[in-house]
Amino acid sequence: MILFLIKSTLALGLFYGMYHFLLSRESIFKFNRFYLLTALVFSIALPFIPMPQVIPSVQEKSNQIWNQWELKQPIVDLEEAKVPTELKEVQEKSLAQVGSQEKEVNQSKISWVQVIIAIYFFGLMLFSTRFLLQLIGMRKLLENNSQIDKGSYRLVLLKEDLLPFTFLNYLFVSRSQHQASGIEPEILEHELAHIRQKHSWDILFVEVLKCIFWFNPLLILYKKAIQLNHEFLADEHVLRKFENRVSYQYLLLNKVSDIFGYHAMSSAFNFRITKRRLIMMGKVSHPMRLTFLKLGSFFLAMLLFFTLTSSRVGNDLGFFISEETDGVEKFEKLLSEGFSEEKPFVLELQKLNLEALRQVYFNLNEEERNQISHFPFFDEVTYEQLLLLQKEYPRVVTTITYSIPPDKKEIKEEVFDLWKKTKNVELFIDEKERPFETLNQYERTDFAFFEVRETSPKKFLKKPEYSIKLMTHDFYHQKYFETPRTIQRISARYPNSDQAEVFYALRYIMMENGKVSEFIPKNFEASIFHHLRTIDTKELDFDNRRSTMNYVTGEQFSISIFKDNKNQSKVFSFPSVTF
User: Where's the Peptidase M56 domain (predicted)?
Assistant: First the structure.
Protein backbone atom coordinates (compact mmCIF):
# COMPACT_ATOMS: atom_id res chain seq x y z
CA MET A 1 0.00 0.00 0.00
CA ILE A 2 2.76 2.45 0.96
CA LEU A 3 4.64 1.79 -2.27
CA PHE A 4 1.45 2.31 -4.28
CA LEU A 5 0.75 5.64 -2.56
CA ILE A 6 4.30 6.88 -3.09
CA LYS A 7 4.29 5.99 -6.78
CA SER A 8 0.82 7.32 -7.59
CA THR A 9 1.28 10.55 -5.60
CA LEU A 10 4.66 11.19 -7.23
CA ALA A 11 3.17 10.70 -10.68
CA LEU A 12 0.15 12.90 -9.90
CA GLY A 13 2.41 15.65 -8.56
CA LEU A 14 4.76 15.63 -11.57
CA PHE A 15 1.91 15.60 -14.09
CA TYR A 16 0.14 18.45 -12.30
CA GLY A 17 3.36 20.44 -12.02
CA MET A 18 3.87 20.27 -15.78
CA TYR A 19 0.27 21.32 -16.37
CA HIS A 20 0.32 24.19 -13.87
CA PHE A 21 3.62 25.74 -14.95
CA LEU A 22 3.51 25.02 -18.70
CA LEU A 23 0.35 23.62 -20.30
CA SER A 24 -2.22 25.75 -18.43
CA ARG A 25 -0.68 28.91 -19.93
CA GLU A 26 -1.33 27.79 -23.50
CA SER A 27 -4.52 27.81 -25.57
CA ILE A 28 -4.62 24.04 -26.17
CA PHE A 29 -7.77 23.38 -24.19
CA LYS A 30 -8.81 20.10 -25.81
CA PHE A 31 -5.32 18.67 -25.32
CA ASN A 32 -5.29 19.91 -21.71
CA ARG A 33 -8.58 18.15 -21.00
CA PHE A 34 -7.17 14.92 -22.41
CA TYR A 35 -3.91 15.47 -20.48
CA LEU A 36 -5.57 16.03 -17.08
CA LEU A 37 -7.91 13.05 -17.34
CA THR A 38 -5.19 10.78 -18.69
CA ALA A 39 -2.81 11.92 -15.94
CA LEU A 40 -5.35 10.85 -13.30
CA VAL A 41 -5.93 7.42 -14.83
CA PHE A 42 -2.28 6.82 -15.68
CA SER A 43 -0.98 7.86 -12.23
CA ILE A 44 -3.35 5.55 -10.38
CA ALA A 45 -2.84 2.63 -12.78
CA LEU A 46 0.91 3.14 -13.12
CA PRO A 47 2.01 0.96 -10.14
CA PHE A 48 -0.08 -1.91 -11.52
CA ILE A 49 1.14 -1.75 -15.13
CA PRO A 50 3.49 -4.65 -15.92
CA MET A 51 6.87 -3.79 -17.40
CA PRO A 52 7.36 -5.37 -20.84
CA GLN A 53 9.69 -8.35 -20.60
CA VAL A 54 11.87 -7.07 -23.46
CA ILE A 55 12.89 -4.10 -21.32
CA PRO A 56 14.89 -4.54 -18.07
CA SER A 57 12.56 -3.64 -15.21
CA VAL A 58 13.85 -0.86 -13.01
CA GLN A 59 11.19 -1.74 -10.50
CA GLU A 60 12.33 -5.35 -10.29
CA LYS A 61 15.91 -4.23 -9.61
CA SER A 62 14.77 -1.79 -6.96
CA ASN A 63 12.69 -4.50 -5.29
CA GLN A 64 15.80 -6.65 -4.98
CA ILE A 65 17.62 -3.80 -3.20
CA TRP A 66 14.90 -2.21 -1.07
CA ASN A 67 12.69 -5.16 -0.23
CA GLN A 68 15.32 -7.55 1.10
CA TRP A 69 13.95 -10.31 3.26
CA GLU A 70 13.29 -9.09 6.77
CA LEU A 71 14.79 -11.66 9.16
CA LYS A 72 12.06 -13.53 11.00
CA GLN A 73 12.91 -15.37 14.17
CA PRO A 74 11.32 -18.83 14.10
CA ILE A 75 9.57 -20.54 16.94
CA VAL A 76 11.69 -23.54 17.89
CA ASP A 77 10.55 -26.74 19.55
CA LEU A 78 13.49 -27.80 21.71
CA GLU A 79 12.29 -31.35 22.01
CA GLU A 80 11.87 -31.89 18.27
CA ALA A 81 15.09 -30.17 17.22
CA LYS A 82 18.12 -32.41 17.55
CA VAL A 83 20.51 -29.72 18.75
CA PRO A 84 23.93 -30.47 20.27
CA THR A 85 23.78 -30.07 24.05
CA GLU A 86 26.44 -27.35 24.09
CA LEU A 87 24.14 -25.10 22.00
CA LYS A 88 20.92 -25.58 23.94
CA GLU A 89 21.69 -23.25 26.83
CA VAL A 90 22.53 -20.39 24.50
CA GLN A 91 19.51 -21.19 22.37
CA GLU A 92 17.02 -21.22 25.22
CA LYS A 93 18.12 -17.85 26.58
CA SER A 94 18.42 -16.17 23.20
CA LEU A 95 15.20 -17.34 21.62
CA ALA A 96 13.14 -16.65 24.73
CA GLN A 97 14.01 -12.97 24.77
CA VAL A 98 14.00 -12.48 20.99
CA GLY A 99 10.68 -14.27 20.70
CA SER A 100 9.05 -12.03 23.30
CA GLN A 101 10.43 -8.92 21.62
CA GLU A 102 9.18 -10.05 18.21
CA LYS A 103 5.74 -10.83 19.62
CA GLU A 104 5.44 -7.31 21.05
CA VAL A 105 6.51 -5.78 17.72
CA ASN A 106 4.04 -7.91 15.75
CA GLN A 107 1.17 -7.03 18.09
CA SER A 108 2.04 -3.35 17.79
CA LYS A 109 2.26 -3.61 14.01
CA ILE A 110 -1.07 -5.37 13.73
CA SER A 111 -2.78 -2.78 15.93
CA TRP A 112 -1.42 0.13 13.88
CA VAL A 113 -2.49 -1.53 10.64
CA GLN A 114 -5.98 -1.97 12.04
CA VAL A 115 -6.11 1.69 13.10
CA ILE A 116 -4.99 2.88 9.64
CA ILE A 117 -7.53 0.63 7.92
CA ALA A 118 -10.29 1.89 10.22
CA ILE A 119 -9.35 5.54 9.50
CA TYR A 120 -9.31 4.88 5.75
CA PHE A 121 -12.75 3.26 5.70
CA PHE A 122 -14.14 6.00 7.94
CA GLY A 123 -12.93 8.61 5.44
CA LEU A 124 -14.24 6.53 2.53
CA MET A 125 -17.67 6.32 4.17
CA LEU A 126 -17.67 10.06 5.00
CA PHE A 127 -16.74 11.25 1.51
CA SER A 128 -18.98 8.69 -0.18
CA THR A 129 -21.89 9.91 1.93
CA ARG A 130 -21.08 13.50 0.94
CA PHE A 131 -20.98 12.53 -2.74
CA LEU A 132 -24.27 10.65 -2.42
CA LEU A 133 -25.93 13.66 -0.76
CA GLN A 134 -24.78 15.86 -3.64
CA LEU A 135 -26.38 13.48 -6.13
CA ILE A 136 -29.57 13.39 -4.05
CA GLY A 137 -29.59 17.19 -3.97
CA MET A 138 -29.33 17.31 -7.75
CA ARG A 139 -32.14 14.78 -8.06
CA LYS A 140 -34.36 16.92 -5.80
CA LEU A 141 -33.75 19.90 -8.08
CA LEU A 142 -35.00 17.83 -11.00
CA GLU A 143 -38.04 16.52 -9.12
CA ASN A 144 -39.11 19.85 -7.59
CA ASN A 145 -38.88 21.95 -10.76
CA SER A 146 -40.61 21.76 -14.12
CA GLN A 147 -38.71 20.54 -17.18
CA ILE A 148 -38.92 21.19 -20.90
CA ASP A 149 -37.59 18.65 -23.40
CA LYS A 150 -35.37 20.40 -25.95
CA GLY A 151 -34.28 17.26 -27.79
CA SER A 152 -30.50 17.20 -27.17
CA TYR A 153 -30.96 18.51 -23.63
CA ARG A 154 -33.64 19.16 -21.00
CA LEU A 155 -34.35 22.65 -19.69
CA VAL A 156 -35.03 22.80 -15.93
CA LEU A 157 -36.85 25.95 -14.75
CA LEU A 158 -35.76 26.90 -11.24
CA LYS A 159 -37.83 28.87 -8.80
CA GLU A 160 -34.72 30.59 -7.47
CA ASP A 161 -33.09 33.51 -9.26
CA LEU A 162 -29.78 31.89 -10.28
CA LEU A 163 -27.41 32.15 -13.20
CA PRO A 164 -27.60 29.14 -15.55
CA PHE A 165 -25.62 25.98 -14.83
CA THR A 166 -25.57 22.45 -16.24
CA PHE A 167 -25.34 18.86 -15.06
CA LEU A 168 -25.17 15.95 -17.52
CA ASN A 169 -27.76 16.86 -20.20
CA TYR A 170 -29.80 19.20 -17.94
CA LEU A 171 -29.63 22.99 -18.26
CA PHE A 172 -30.81 24.77 -15.11
CA VAL A 173 -32.08 28.34 -15.59
CA SER A 174 -34.18 30.79 -13.61
CA ARG A 175 -37.89 30.53 -14.50
CA SER A 176 -38.37 34.29 -14.30
CA GLN A 177 -35.39 35.02 -16.58
CA HIS A 178 -36.50 32.36 -19.07
CA GLN A 179 -40.06 33.72 -19.27
CA ALA A 180 -38.77 37.29 -19.67
CA SER A 181 -36.22 36.13 -22.30
CA GLY A 182 -33.53 37.60 -20.10
CA ILE A 183 -30.87 34.98 -20.80
CA GLU A 184 -28.25 36.22 -23.24
CA PRO A 185 -27.59 33.93 -26.24
CA GLU A 186 -23.87 33.82 -25.39
CA ILE A 187 -24.59 32.54 -21.89
CA LEU A 188 -27.02 29.94 -23.22
CA GLU A 189 -24.51 28.76 -25.82
CA HIS A 190 -21.78 28.63 -23.17
CA GLU A 191 -23.84 26.26 -21.04
CA LEU A 192 -24.91 24.16 -24.01
CA ALA A 193 -21.22 23.69 -24.82
CA HIS A 194 -20.78 22.07 -21.40
CA ILE A 195 -23.59 19.64 -22.24
CA ARG A 196 -22.41 18.82 -25.75
CA GLN A 197 -18.82 18.22 -24.61
CA LYS A 198 -20.02 16.11 -21.65
CA HIS A 199 -18.04 18.01 -19.03
CA SER A 200 -20.15 16.66 -16.17
CA TRP A 201 -18.70 13.19 -16.64
CA ASP A 202 -15.21 14.56 -16.00
CA ILE A 203 -16.33 16.06 -12.72
CA LEU A 204 -18.17 12.91 -11.67
CA PHE A 205 -15.04 10.87 -12.39
CA VAL A 206 -12.91 13.13 -10.19
CA GLU A 207 -15.52 13.05 -7.43
CA VAL A 208 -15.42 9.24 -7.39
CA LEU A 209 -11.62 9.35 -7.15
CA LYS A 210 -11.90 11.86 -4.29
CA CYS A 211 -14.08 9.38 -2.40
CA ILE A 212 -11.61 6.51 -2.86
CA PHE A 213 -8.44 8.59 -2.36
CA TRP A 214 -9.93 11.16 -0.02
CA PHE A 215 -6.59 11.63 1.75
CA ASN A 216 -4.83 12.91 -1.40
CA PRO A 217 -5.10 16.74 -1.69
CA LEU A 218 -3.78 16.67 -5.26
CA LEU A 219 -7.22 15.54 -6.45
CA ILE A 220 -8.67 18.87 -5.29
CA LEU A 221 -6.16 20.70 -7.50
CA TYR A 222 -7.00 18.42 -10.41
CA LYS A 223 -10.71 19.09 -10.04
CA LYS A 224 -10.19 22.86 -10.03
CA ALA A 225 -7.91 22.63 -13.07
CA ILE A 226 -10.42 20.47 -14.97
CA GLN A 227 -13.35 22.77 -14.16
CA LEU A 228 -11.41 25.88 -15.22
CA ASN A 229 -10.38 24.19 -18.45
CA HIS A 230 -14.06 23.39 -19.07
CA GLU A 231 -14.74 27.12 -18.93
CA PHE A 232 -11.96 27.78 -21.43
CA LEU A 233 -13.46 25.18 -23.78
CA ALA A 234 -16.97 26.67 -23.49
CA ASP A 235 -15.62 30.21 -24.00
CA GLU A 236 -13.73 29.03 -27.07
CA HIS A 237 -16.95 27.59 -28.51
CA VAL A 238 -18.87 30.83 -27.89
CA LEU A 239 -16.19 32.96 -29.57
CA ARG A 240 -16.12 30.70 -32.62
CA LYS A 241 -19.88 30.99 -33.01
CA PHE A 242 -20.46 34.70 -32.26
CA GLU A 243 -17.03 36.05 -33.34
CA ASN A 244 -17.25 39.05 -30.99
CA ARG A 245 -14.66 38.68 -28.28
CA VAL A 246 -14.98 42.22 -26.82
CA SER A 247 -18.76 41.96 -26.44
CA TYR A 248 -18.46 38.56 -24.75
CA GLN A 249 -15.78 39.85 -22.39
CA TYR A 250 -17.99 42.78 -21.36
CA LEU A 251 -20.80 40.31 -20.73
CA LEU A 252 -18.52 38.31 -18.42
CA LEU A 253 -17.53 41.44 -16.50
CA ASN A 254 -21.17 42.45 -16.04
CA LYS A 255 -22.05 39.01 -14.67
CA VAL A 256 -19.10 38.66 -12.31
CA SER A 257 -20.70 40.77 -9.57
CA ASP A 258 -23.99 38.85 -9.66
CA ILE A 259 -24.77 36.86 -6.52
CA PHE A 260 -25.66 33.31 -7.33
CA GLY A 261 -25.19 29.73 -6.17
CA TYR A 262 -24.28 26.62 -8.08
CA HIS A 263 -24.03 22.93 -7.39
CA ALA A 264 -20.60 21.44 -6.56
CA MET A 265 -20.82 18.93 -9.43
CA SER A 266 -22.28 21.30 -12.02
CA SER A 267 -20.70 23.49 -14.70
CA ALA A 268 -21.65 27.08 -13.86
CA PHE A 269 -21.41 30.10 -16.17
CA ASN A 270 -19.36 32.22 -13.79
CA PHE A 271 -16.61 30.06 -12.30
CA ARG A 272 -15.14 32.82 -10.08
CA ILE A 273 -11.98 33.09 -12.22
CA THR A 274 -13.15 35.53 -14.90
CA LYS A 275 -9.75 37.26 -15.08
CA ARG A 276 -8.03 34.06 -16.21
CA ARG A 277 -10.75 33.47 -18.74
CA LEU A 278 -10.38 36.96 -20.18
CA ILE A 279 -6.63 36.47 -20.52
CA MET A 280 -6.95 33.07 -22.20
CA MET A 281 -9.44 34.46 -24.76
CA GLY A 282 -6.70 36.59 -26.26
CA LYS A 283 -3.94 34.02 -25.89
CA VAL A 284 -2.18 32.93 -29.06
CA SER A 285 0.39 30.13 -28.71
CA HIS A 286 3.21 29.48 -31.14
CA PRO A 287 2.71 26.14 -32.95
CA MET A 288 6.32 25.08 -32.41
CA ARG A 289 6.04 25.73 -28.67
CA LEU A 290 2.85 23.68 -28.50
CA THR A 291 4.57 20.81 -30.32
CA PHE A 292 7.44 20.80 -27.82
CA LEU A 293 5.03 20.89 -24.86
CA LYS A 294 3.04 17.95 -26.18
CA LEU A 295 6.22 15.99 -26.79
CA GLY A 296 7.41 16.94 -23.31
CA SER A 297 4.23 15.55 -21.72
CA PHE A 298 4.72 12.33 -23.69
CA PHE A 299 8.34 11.98 -22.54
CA LEU A 300 7.27 12.64 -18.93
CA ALA A 301 4.74 9.80 -19.20
CA MET A 302 7.41 7.49 -20.63
CA LEU A 303 9.88 8.43 -17.89
CA LEU A 304 7.33 7.61 -15.19
CA PHE A 305 6.40 4.41 -17.01
CA PHE A 306 9.97 3.12 -16.98
CA THR A 307 10.64 4.12 -13.36
CA LEU A 308 7.36 3.49 -11.51
CA THR A 309 5.77 0.53 -13.24
CA SER A 310 5.55 -2.77 -11.45
CA SER A 311 7.45 -5.87 -12.45
CA ARG A 312 4.11 -7.69 -12.61
CA VAL A 313 0.42 -6.93 -12.56
CA GLY A 314 -0.92 -6.48 -9.06
CA ASN A 315 2.52 -6.16 -7.49
CA ASP A 316 1.54 -3.06 -5.52
CA LEU A 317 -2.11 -3.76 -4.79
CA GLY A 318 -1.30 -4.19 -1.11
CA PHE A 319 -4.25 -2.50 0.57
CA PHE A 320 -6.81 -3.25 -2.12
CA ILE A 321 -6.49 -7.03 -2.38
CA SER A 322 -6.88 -9.87 0.03
CA GLU A 323 -3.93 -11.18 1.98
CA GLU A 324 -3.69 -14.42 -0.02
CA THR A 325 -2.70 -13.04 -3.43
CA ASP A 326 -1.89 -15.02 -6.55
CA GLY A 327 1.81 -14.35 -5.99
CA VAL A 328 1.74 -15.75 -2.46
CA GLU A 329 -0.19 -18.82 -3.56
CA LYS A 330 2.16 -19.36 -6.48
CA PHE A 331 5.23 -19.11 -4.23
CA GLU A 332 3.78 -21.56 -1.72
CA LYS A 333 2.80 -23.95 -4.51
CA LEU A 334 6.32 -23.93 -5.96
CA LEU A 335 7.81 -24.42 -2.49
CA SER A 336 5.40 -27.25 -1.65
CA GLU A 337 6.73 -29.24 -4.60
CA GLY A 338 9.94 -29.76 -2.64
CA PHE A 339 8.42 -31.13 0.58
CA SER A 340 8.95 -34.78 1.38
CA GLU A 341 5.88 -36.99 1.20
CA GLU A 342 6.94 -38.89 4.33
CA LYS A 343 7.99 -35.77 6.25
CA PRO A 344 5.74 -32.83 5.30
CA PHE A 345 7.94 -30.27 7.11
CA VAL A 346 11.19 -31.35 5.41
CA LEU A 347 12.11 -29.64 2.14
CA GLU A 348 14.25 -31.60 -0.33
CA LEU A 349 16.43 -29.13 -2.25
CA GLN A 350 16.77 -31.22 -5.42
CA LYS A 351 12.99 -31.08 -6.00
CA LEU A 352 12.80 -27.27 -6.13
CA ASN A 353 12.62 -25.13 -9.26
CA LEU A 354 14.83 -22.44 -7.76
CA GLU A 355 14.78 -20.15 -10.79
CA ALA A 356 10.96 -19.99 -10.88
CA LEU A 357 10.81 -19.62 -7.10
CA ARG A 358 13.25 -16.70 -7.19
CA GLN A 359 11.35 -14.96 -9.97
CA VAL A 360 8.07 -15.18 -8.07
CA TYR A 361 9.77 -13.97 -4.89
CA PHE A 362 11.11 -10.81 -6.51
CA ASN A 363 7.65 -10.04 -7.89
CA LEU A 364 6.16 -10.00 -4.38
CA ASN A 365 5.83 -6.76 -2.46
CA GLU A 366 6.89 -6.39 1.17
CA GLU A 367 3.48 -7.28 2.61
CA GLU A 368 3.28 -10.44 0.48
CA ARG A 369 6.78 -11.52 1.52
CA ASN A 370 5.65 -11.46 5.14
CA GLN A 371 2.92 -13.97 4.25
CA ILE A 372 5.08 -16.68 2.65
CA SER A 373 7.11 -19.46 4.20
CA HIS A 374 10.65 -18.59 5.22
CA PHE A 375 13.13 -19.01 2.33
CA PRO A 376 15.54 -16.02 2.45
CA PHE A 377 18.14 -17.28 -0.01
CA PHE A 378 17.64 -15.10 -3.07
CA ASP A 379 20.31 -12.43 -2.86
CA GLU A 380 22.86 -12.85 -5.63
CA VAL A 381 25.72 -14.44 -3.66
CA THR A 382 23.54 -16.81 -1.62
CA TYR A 383 21.48 -17.85 -4.63
CA GLU A 384 24.63 -18.69 -6.59
CA GLN A 385 25.89 -20.94 -3.77
CA LEU A 386 22.46 -22.53 -3.41
CA LEU A 387 22.42 -23.46 -7.10
CA LEU A 388 25.90 -24.99 -6.81
CA LEU A 389 24.78 -27.04 -3.81
CA GLN A 390 21.67 -28.25 -5.63
CA LYS A 391 23.81 -29.42 -8.57
CA GLU A 392 25.81 -31.63 -6.20
CA TYR A 393 22.83 -33.98 -5.86
CA PRO A 394 22.96 -36.98 -5.45
CA ARG A 395 26.48 -36.74 -3.96
CA VAL A 396 25.15 -34.24 -1.44
CA VAL A 397 21.50 -34.64 -0.44
CA THR A 398 20.38 -31.34 1.09
CA THR A 399 17.25 -30.88 3.18
CA ILE A 400 15.73 -27.87 4.91
CA THR A 401 13.65 -28.66 7.99
CA TYR A 402 10.91 -26.25 9.03
CA SER A 403 9.58 -25.88 12.56
CA ILE A 404 7.49 -28.95 13.36
CA PRO A 405 4.30 -28.49 15.38
CA PRO A 406 3.98 -30.48 18.60
CA ASP A 407 1.74 -33.53 18.53
CA LYS A 408 -1.77 -33.06 19.79
CA LYS A 409 -2.36 -34.23 23.34
CA GLU A 410 -5.63 -35.62 24.59
CA ILE A 411 -6.59 -34.60 28.11
CA LYS A 412 -7.80 -37.49 30.20
CA GLU A 413 -11.12 -37.00 31.93
CA GLU A 414 -9.76 -37.58 35.44
CA VAL A 415 -6.92 -35.12 34.83
CA PHE A 416 -9.31 -32.46 33.58
CA ASP A 417 -11.54 -32.92 36.64
CA LEU A 418 -8.49 -32.68 38.88
CA TRP A 419 -7.47 -29.38 37.30
CA LYS A 420 -10.86 -27.88 38.12
CA LYS A 421 -10.40 -28.77 41.79
CA THR A 422 -6.83 -27.55 42.04
CA LYS A 423 -5.99 -24.16 43.56
CA ASN A 424 -2.99 -21.88 43.04
CA VAL A 425 -3.11 -22.39 39.28
CA GLU A 426 -2.50 -19.87 36.51
CA LEU A 427 -4.61 -20.56 33.42
CA PHE A 428 -3.63 -19.64 29.87
CA ILE A 429 -5.95 -20.39 26.96
CA ASP A 430 -4.68 -19.70 23.43
CA GLU A 431 -1.70 -17.82 24.90
CA LYS A 432 -3.87 -15.42 26.88
CA GLU A 433 -4.18 -15.47 30.66
CA ARG A 434 -7.74 -16.16 31.80
CA PRO A 435 -9.48 -16.37 35.18
CA PHE A 436 -9.31 -19.95 36.37
CA GLU A 437 -13.12 -20.15 36.50
CA THR A 438 -13.11 -19.89 32.71
CA LEU A 439 -12.07 -23.55 32.56
CA ASN A 440 -15.61 -24.55 33.60
CA GLN A 441 -16.89 -23.18 30.26
CA TYR A 442 -14.92 -25.77 28.28
CA GLU A 443 -14.95 -29.50 27.71
CA ARG A 444 -11.68 -31.42 27.72
CA THR A 445 -12.20 -32.30 24.06
CA ASP A 446 -12.15 -28.59 23.16
CA PHE A 447 -8.37 -28.53 23.52
CA ALA A 448 -5.76 -29.87 21.11
CA PHE A 449 -2.69 -29.30 23.26
CA PHE A 450 -1.83 -28.71 26.90
CA GLU A 451 1.23 -28.00 28.99
CA VAL A 452 1.49 -28.08 32.80
CA ARG A 453 4.42 -26.55 34.64
CA GLU A 454 5.27 -26.04 38.26
CA THR A 455 5.90 -22.32 38.71
CA SER A 456 6.62 -22.38 42.41
CA PRO A 457 7.78 -25.51 44.34
CA LYS A 458 6.21 -26.74 47.53
CA LYS A 459 7.54 -25.06 50.67
CA PHE A 460 6.87 -25.19 54.37
CA LEU A 461 3.18 -24.45 54.90
CA LYS A 462 2.88 -23.51 51.23
CA LYS A 463 1.47 -25.61 48.44
CA PRO A 464 3.16 -25.71 45.04
CA GLU A 465 1.86 -23.42 42.28
CA TYR A 466 1.25 -24.44 38.69
CA SER A 467 0.48 -22.93 35.29
CA ILE A 468 -1.73 -24.70 32.78
CA LYS A 469 -1.41 -23.68 29.14
CA LEU A 470 -4.20 -24.88 26.86
CA MET A 471 -4.68 -24.53 23.13
CA THR A 472 -8.01 -24.92 21.33
CA HIS A 473 -8.17 -26.84 18.06
CA ASP A 474 -8.78 -23.70 15.98
CA PHE A 475 -5.88 -21.83 17.57
CA TYR A 476 -3.59 -24.85 17.21
CA HIS A 477 -4.34 -25.09 13.49
CA GLN A 478 -3.95 -21.34 13.00
CA LYS A 479 -0.67 -21.19 14.93
CA TYR A 480 1.08 -24.11 13.30
CA PHE A 481 -0.56 -24.58 9.89
CA GLU A 482 -1.96 -21.23 8.73
CA THR A 483 1.04 -19.05 9.57
CA PRO A 484 4.15 -18.96 7.34
CA ARG A 485 6.56 -21.82 8.05
CA THR A 486 9.96 -20.93 9.51
CA ILE A 487 13.25 -22.73 8.94
CA GLN A 488 14.73 -24.66 11.86
CA ARG A 489 17.81 -26.37 10.44
CA ILE A 490 19.63 -27.11 7.17
CA SER A 491 21.16 -30.57 6.66
CA ALA A 492 23.34 -32.35 4.11
CA ARG A 493 23.97 -36.12 3.78
CA TYR A 494 27.07 -37.47 2.06
CA PRO A 495 27.87 -40.80 0.31
CA ASN A 496 29.53 -42.23 3.47
CA SER A 497 26.27 -41.61 5.39
CA ASP A 498 27.84 -38.77 7.38
CA GLN A 499 25.55 -35.86 7.93
CA ALA A 500 26.16 -32.13 8.51
CA GLU A 501 23.57 -29.89 10.18
CA VAL A 502 23.36 -26.16 10.74
CA PHE A 503 20.91 -25.09 13.41
CA TYR A 504 19.61 -22.16 11.36
CA ALA A 505 17.12 -21.11 14.04
CA LEU A 506 19.99 -20.00 16.27
CA ARG A 507 20.45 -16.59 14.67
CA TYR A 508 20.87 -14.53 17.80
CA ILE A 509 22.99 -14.74 20.93
CA MET A 510 22.54 -13.37 24.45
CA MET A 511 25.39 -11.01 25.33
CA GLU A 512 26.85 -10.58 28.82
CA ASN A 513 24.94 -7.33 29.34
CA GLY A 514 21.65 -9.13 28.72
CA LYS A 515 21.10 -7.67 25.26
CA VAL A 516 20.31 -9.81 22.25
CA SER A 517 22.63 -9.43 19.28
CA GLU A 518 22.71 -10.97 15.83
CA PHE A 519 24.93 -14.01 15.93
CA ILE A 520 25.10 -14.61 12.21
CA PRO A 521 28.30 -13.57 10.41
CA LYS A 522 28.54 -11.85 7.07
CA ASN A 523 27.45 -14.03 4.13
CA PHE A 524 25.82 -16.41 6.62
CA GLU A 525 23.51 -18.28 4.24
CA ALA A 526 26.03 -18.30 1.37
CA SER A 527 28.71 -19.65 3.74
CA ILE A 528 26.38 -22.43 4.91
CA PHE A 529 25.77 -23.64 1.37
CA HIS A 530 29.46 -23.34 0.46
CA HIS A 531 30.64 -25.42 3.43
CA LEU A 532 27.90 -28.05 3.06
CA ARG A 533 29.02 -28.50 -0.53
CA THR A 534 32.77 -28.63 0.16
CA ILE A 535 33.02 -30.38 3.56
CA ASP A 536 35.13 -33.53 3.67
CA THR A 537 34.02 -35.25 6.88
CA LYS A 538 37.00 -37.63 6.72
CA GLU A 539 39.40 -34.76 7.38
CA LEU A 540 37.60 -33.51 10.51
CA ASP A 541 39.16 -34.34 13.89
CA PHE A 542 36.66 -36.41 15.86
CA ASP A 543 39.28 -37.95 18.17
CA ASN A 544 39.98 -34.70 20.00
CA ARG A 545 37.01 -34.43 22.33
CA ARG A 546 37.82 -30.87 23.32
CA SER A 547 35.08 -28.52 22.24
CA THR A 548 35.84 -26.42 19.20
CA MET A 549 33.04 -23.94 19.97
CA ASN A 550 35.34 -20.93 20.19
CA TYR A 551 33.32 -18.43 18.23
CA VAL A 552 34.53 -15.13 16.85
CA THR A 553 31.22 -13.28 16.71
CA GLY A 554 30.40 -12.09 13.24
CA GLU A 555 33.11 -14.23 11.63
CA GLN A 556 32.27 -17.87 12.45
CA PHE A 557 29.30 -20.20 12.90
CA SER A 558 28.82 -23.84 13.91
CA ILE A 559 28.07 -26.97 11.90
CA SER A 560 27.27 -30.23 13.68
CA ILE A 561 28.74 -33.35 12.05
CA PHE A 562 27.13 -36.73 12.70
CA LYS A 563 29.17 -39.87 11.83
CA ASP A 564 28.30 -43.53 11.64
CA ASN A 565 24.55 -42.99 11.42
CA LYS A 566 24.66 -40.37 14.23
CA ASN A 567 26.32 -42.63 16.79
CA GLN A 568 29.12 -40.10 16.97
CA SER A 569 28.75 -36.33 16.67
CA LYS A 570 30.71 -33.16 17.21
CA VAL A 571 30.21 -29.43 16.71
CA PHE A 572 32.80 -27.60 14.60
CA SER A 573 33.36 -23.91 13.97
CA PHE A 574 33.48 -22.81 10.33
CA PRO A 575 34.53 -19.39 9.07
CA SER A 576 32.39 -17.01 7.08
CA VAL A 577 33.43 -17.03 3.43
CA THR A 578 34.14 -13.89 1.41
CA PHE A 579 32.94 -14.32 -2.15
Answer: 187-280
